[in-house]
Design goal:
The protein has 2 domains: 176 residues, 3-Layer(aba) Sandwich (Rossmann fold); 179 residues, 3-Layer(aba) Sandwich (Rossmann fold), CATH 3.40.50. Helices cover 44% and strands 16% of the residues. The chain is built from 16 helices and 13 strands. The strands form 2 sheets. The protein has a 7-stranded parallel sheet with strand order 3-2-1-4-5-6-7, sandwiched between helices. A 6-stranded parallel sheet has the order 10-9-8-11-12-13, sandwiched between helices. The two termini are 28 Å apart.
Amino acid sequence: MSKIAPTTKNILIVAGDPSGDLHAANLIRALKEKDPDLSITSIGGMRMQEVSSHFIYNLVSVGAVGFSEPFKNFFLWLKLLKLVRRYLEEKRPACVIAVDFYGFNHQMLGLAAHRHIPAFYYISPQVWASRLGRAAKLAKLTKELFVIFPFEETIYKKAGANVTFVGHPLLDLLPPPVEKTFPPADNSWQIGILPGSRKTEISRHLPIFLNAFYKIKASCPNAKAKVFAVPEFPDEKLVPFLERAEKYWSKDIEIVREYGYKERAALDFAFTCSGTATLENALLGIPMVVAYKVPRLTYEVARRVIKIPYISLVNILLNKPAVKELIQEKATVEFLTREAFALFNNPPKMTAQRAEFSSLRAMLGSPGAAARAAEKILSYLN
């Protein structure tokens, strides 16, 4: 780790997944815009590295998720926690900011609390889904939590936290939905394939999503697909997973990486791994089918601890099965294809799904989440 000049305007920010990396980078921009003299040190991903004063490690590239997979990175975790501890002791930052990624970040917050360094949480973990007890732990470890869903504010207040709903950061990034007519001319469906952002998610979802597309292609020859990939996963890493499909490449499939949402917004439909992508799709007005597969052990544990009836953020927020969810053994090529055609053959149903999505923007507050969080953090430090 490179030497950093001691400063009372030094802040450490830690994120561990691609969406956290994106939103943390925008928080860094907001902090620096309000105070250009800040020195930001980060652990995260490529987006954070681009805007930070100092960068320690690309934690996003590790991609640990679930109940068992983090154990595979146990020694890396220990190494990074030692780096964080040394950094906190030597540099005494003005504060630390955790962004989602509970598994690593709650340990980082514990290190900060032990050294009496103030801490904040931007985009708090989804403790409401499975482990409400974590809310009380985070309340004790942070000066304030900045949450992005309105119902989270009540949950954390009950746990004794100082908490503020700042709105969802996606509202600053996503354009309004594109006008669509279903079916498209000549059945030239533009189909999105969003298999996830982590290696394990991609390996499980990409082959079945691709083969579902080829079944659609057999009935709709003009259909085309776009595989949306994160910057951390270059083409050469995708090829082994593409080869698991019956046909792994053709002129009908394009790999897309975009920081904006222009190409995504043009889609007619998407096969989507559960996660932030489902909410992005909904805000863009894209009808979808959601699927998710995990290792058997992870599934059995999750089935016992998850307290909510849905896995997609769209259904959770609307509190109804607005989009079809295919979980574990139901996440198959046959089920995906059937559900896709159930929409394709019923244009009013696709239009109705888009109409349901339109109510989500109003639920998520107003644009400016990062700016509001940055202002409150700096008010503490000043």
